[in-house]
Amino acid sequence: MLLHEQIEHLCESLKLNSIPTHWSSLAEQCIAQDKSYGEFLLSLLKCEQQQRDERTRNLLSRMAGFPAHKELNTFDFKFATSFAQAYKILEMA
Question: What is the pLDDT of residues 18-28, one digit of tens each?
Answer without folding.
Answer: 998 888 899 99
